Structure formats: C-alpha cells, structure tokens
User: Which sequence fits this backbone?
C-alpha cells in the first residue's frame, strides 16, 4: 500500500501517464484522421461556442466571490475574477488542479490558509452538480449501479450544501473509520455557510454547466453529428472525469471517456476526442493561459494591519487546507 500511495503522489508518474494516454489515443484515432476532422470543423460554430466561455467564467467568478464574502474574506469582484483565472493558469501544470490554491496570491485577504480551503469548497460544488447531471447518462449507457452511486453522491452533496451542520453532526458516528478527520474537515468547510449561500452556489454551478452543455451541442453540430440526447447523457460524465486526479488537466482520461461514451451513438472517435479536447481548451486551457499572461500584472493590495497575530488568526480559521482533501474534491 505504501508503494501505491507513493506512486499516486509522484508527479512524474502522473506526467508520464498523461503522455502515455495521449499517445495511445492518437495512435488509436490516427493523427491524419484527426487532422481531416479538424479541417471539417465549422469556424462559425467554434466562434459561437467560444463566446459562451465568457458567461461561463463570469458565473464561476460570481460563485467564488460569493464564497469569499460569505467567509468574510476581503475581495472585490474584480479581485475574485483575477484570482480565479490566475489559479486556472497555475492549475494547467499540476495534477488534480492543485495549482488553483494559487488563487490566494491575487487577493488582499491576509488569511491565505482560509482562502486555500475555500478553493476546495468551491470545487466540491462542481462535483455535486455534475454527479446529479450524470445520473441519467450512467443509467442509460454505463450501469444502473454507477447511476445510483452518482445519485447518492449528488443528493448527499446537496444536503451538504444546504444543511452542512446537520450532516457533520450525523457523520460524527463514523469517527472510528479511516479518513474520518479528512472528511470531517471538508464538512467543516461548509458548516460555516448558511443554506442560502449553498443554494446560490448550487444555482450558479448549474447555470454554468447548462452553458457548457450548450457549448458542446454547438461543437458537435459543427460536424453535423449528435443531438441533445448525446450532450445530456454523455458530456456530464466526461466532465466529471476531471475529478479523477491522475493526469495533468484530465488529459487523456477525458478524451478516452468521450470516445467510449459517444461510440454508443455511433459517433467516431475522430470526432469524440477533438470535441472533448476543444471543450477543455475553451473553458480551461484558454482562460488558464490568459490568467498566466495577465495576472503577473495584478498585485493584491497590501493587507491592512491586523489586531491579531497572523499565525493565530489562520490557526483559528476553522477551515482546513489539506492538499489531500483538495485532491479528493477534484476539479470539474
């Protein structure tokens, strides 16, 4: 078990796995076929789909700003937006998107540990909504057991977002179980927020993924394939694979999953693979590159003098920042 744990945490293993999966996918699909498929892509559809990245990012920034304000962290909406894309830039190079913890660097809030923990909470909302959106597709295409697992995960997640204190109290009976402390820390991250904050975050998340589903439909229609059924049943599961912290940016896993699922609708891998990659490019890679380019010019204002020692204040935040817990939340 020690060897498996060490391998799991080894960055070079994940870099190698990412490279190996991409090579395997390109070998299976054939690079020439991918090139011809790319040339057949309608540029109009591509531009329309890319334009939807803007409202997608704005909704994510609104959710992030809401969490910061609810946690009494100092941040304007502009700072929250810069923080979001700045973290996305660093996350492009890190497995499990742990680089998003760098969001704290672009905020004037002095309690960086607290902000790092809020990043974890922010990502969990993606997993909750994606799990619920994946239920129908899992039941139809994959397995009823997987659909049930997604349903349980999603319902528990909604309960966590709306009634976190009750769920944490109920979970206390599992104290003897392994990883109790790590899961309890996740629950503690939600417990300080009232139900209205959780409900608003869930609605922002749902709206952002409705936009993503619309983008994917536009991309598929650029090749004159697929319908709303393909989008609704397949793509939430494809995006949910980003929560599996194995490769860089989910590369390889996401494209392979898209190939398998869209094959159910007789859509060739030469379309499934680039369509999934284009979604990653528009909503993750492009904003991340933009963040990496512009955020060095933004410096968070120096924090005002505090009446309490910084170390003491961070120690009493009541919200953890364990990287291991952050990995378990993944990234949607």
Assistant:
């Amino acid at each position: 078990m020690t060897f498996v744990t060490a391998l799991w945490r080894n960055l070079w293993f994940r870099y190698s796995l990412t490279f190996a999966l991409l090579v395997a996918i390109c070998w299976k699909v054939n690079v020439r076929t991918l090139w011809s498929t790319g040339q057949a892509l309608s540029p109009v559809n591509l531009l329309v789909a890319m334009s939807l990245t803007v409202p997608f990012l704005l909704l994510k920034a609104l959710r992030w700003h809401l969490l910061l304000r609810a946690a009494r962290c100092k941040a304007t909406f502009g700072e929250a937006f810069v923080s979001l894309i700045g973290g996305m830039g660093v996350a492009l190079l890190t497995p499990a998107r742990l680089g998003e913890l760098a969001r704290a660097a672009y905020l004037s809030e002095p309690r960086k540990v607290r902000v790092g923990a809020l990043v974890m909470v922010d990502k969990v909302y993606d997993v909750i909504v994606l799990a619920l959106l994946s239920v129908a597709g899992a039941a139809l295409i994959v397995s009823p057991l997987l659909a049930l697992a997604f349903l349980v995960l999603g319902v528990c997640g909604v309960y966590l977002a709306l009634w976190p204190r009750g769920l944490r109290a109920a979970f206390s009976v599992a104290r003897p179980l392994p990883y109790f402390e790590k899961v309890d820390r996740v629950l503690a991250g939600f417990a300080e927020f009232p139900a209205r904050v959780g409900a608003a975050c869930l609605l922002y998340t749902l709206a952002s993924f409705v936009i993503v589903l619309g983008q994917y439909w536009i991309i598929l229609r650029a090749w004159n394939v697929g319908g709303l059924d393909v989008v609704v049943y397949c793509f939430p599961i494809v995006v949910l694979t980003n929560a599996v912290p194995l490769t860089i940016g989910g590369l390889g896993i996401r494209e392979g999953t898209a190939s398998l699922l869209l094959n159910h609708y007789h859509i060739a891998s030469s379309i499934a693979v680039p369509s999934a990659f284009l979604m990653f490019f528009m909503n993750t890679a492009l904003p991340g590159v933009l963040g990496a380019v512009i955020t060095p010019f933004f410096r968070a204002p120096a924090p005002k003098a505090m009446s309490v020692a910084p170390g003491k204040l961070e120690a009493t935040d009541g919200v953890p920042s364990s990287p291991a817990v952050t990995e378990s939340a993944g990234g949607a």
Remarks:
- Residues 43-300 form one domain.
- Confidence is low (pLDDT under 50) at residues 305-332.
- Residues 65 and 76 are 7 Å apart (CA to CA).
